[in-house]
Amino acid sequence: MSAKMVKWAGVGRNRTIEVFFQRPAFDVKAEKVAAQVLREIRRCGDAAVVRFVKKFDGVSLSASNLAVDKTILALARRKISKNFVLAIKEAHRRIALFAEAGLRKDWQIATPGGGAVGEKFVPMDRVGVYIPGGTAPLVSTALMTVTLAKTAGVKEIVACSPCTDGNQINNHLLYALDLAGATEVYRIGGIQAIGAMAYGTRSVRRVQKIVGPGGAFVTAAKRQVYGDVALDLVAGPSEIAVLADDGAKPEYIAADLLSQAEHGTGLEKSLLVTSSEKLAYAVRREIDKQAQLLQRADAVNKVIADGMLLVVVRNVSDGMALCNAFAPEHLELMVRHARKWVDKVRKAGAVFVGPWSPESVGDFVAGPSHVLPTGGAAAMFSGLTVDDFRRRTSVIACTKDDLKSVAPIIDAFGLMEGLDGHAKSALMRFSQS
Predict the structure, then answer these.
(1) pTM to 2 decimals?
(2) Residue 92 catalytic?
(3) Catalytically annotated residue among 40, 184, 268, 329
(4) Is 337 a catalytic residue?
(5) Residue of 239, 330, 332, 359 with catalytic role
(6) What is the CATH number of the domain that holds 264?
């Protein structure tokens, strides 16, 4: 089946586009299951975690071997190819460099009376990172999360990922976790991983914040533990939008649209918005051709049928408006003078500029974290950054002259809001002096 194609005139409603843009924030079934599992983990701790690992992952573990031994982490390096070690190291170097550059510095400004106000940034003490592993070992996600936490200065970095055959985690993933700076690794996936990190068990001490992507059940679990722990964002199935004009190469666009369709949930979204009807047809032909050559053709074909849309618009400006309305996780600009269009992007998790910036470079090696808002959440949230692993604290240091100059303002607000204690706490310092 070929991807759906529609035309949009820039005004009025289009039912096909509206339906495509709908991405439910949560799954009702997943919410119910998550609530039950989390309740049991809070009540029974390790026993519940072990039970649900067996139920959902088909793996028999005991509380004593939930954690990956340090020697196993050290041995993982020897079990992967030299070429991939080099790839992991280079990706890690670039991610760490970007994170270091993004660290906000403590700052202050002087007050009129000789005091100061400002902000300081302090790393969290203990954070949890979730690494999906259902359809593939997401080695890149380990780097895109743990590296940021390490760069931020977090001392204890807990990583959870489901194990597979032989009760083991993929060696490539273990090596990446160790290189990036994980201090504890657990063979726990899904809801049970989120519950263990959020509530704590005898084997897994609770964390202050949980980050990392996941499927519908992990997303539901993260939503429900918010408040017990802090969260990065609630991320769902991957998505991409490409804005293109008649100068773009259809084979590049088709490949990029398919790159997000292969994740395997079947709920991914791939959107092309173009000012060229000729290009849209060429892209559709390329999609049909390239899809059959991919290893995960079955998963990809499901997305082509249900989660892919090609929209022809009057001009690039209308196309940008449509992309902003979609608020995609990833937005590629395949248009002339692409850099000039970046300023027009209002809602996107990450922007990829020009024909030499495929979304895959962001997934693996560019530097910014690939943990990004999905489902339209880019209209409200930003992607994961190094400062998500730090606490921001305001610092206020007034002198006597500072307080004296603002005391009448404090008094006015105290009276207006009926909080006379607030006013007295400032004024009494002068009545007694």
Answers:
(1) 0.92
(2) no
(3) 329
(4) no
(5) 330
(6) 3.40.50.1980
